[in-house]
């Protein structure tokens, strides 16, 4: 007689000699007769006393930490174990943009340097006006433009950054005014040095 390949009765709870077979799936349990049967080995906590079951049985909800801690900030950690985000719960996000004040400063210095150098050239090539115009349009104005670039680069790393479309064009316009002022002042300085 061939054995049924789907018979898994050997893996269930052990039968008592002369006892009743275990109930079918979903059926009512058979009345217990005699000493308790040995465990089948599938539930290690099944035959433990109640005092031993509570500390040994793991809590499935605690596998990922405290569920109430998710979505909170202020000392809490996010789901990746990192500190809470810089945005407080319910706080408004701030939009950062380029520091336009440094654009205005750089443009004003470049225009002032160009005007002073041009006035000196029209007055006959004065050395003092040429030096002042060259310094304002050169190192001072370009230094202000470099400060703009440094602050703008740092602001680009923030959460929300928004810059107007004309900001890049204005940057090159300020740089062009700086170069014209530098060239005009340098040309007058070269003329003065040639007359020595």
UniProtKB/TrEMBL annotation:
Low complexity bias spans: 25-41
Membrane-crossing segments per the record: 100-120, 126-149, 170-193
Lineage: superkingdom: Bacteria
Disordered as annotated region, ranges: 1-76
Alphabetic keyword roster: Membrane, Transmembrane, Transmembrane helix
Protein name per UniProt: Uncharacterized protein
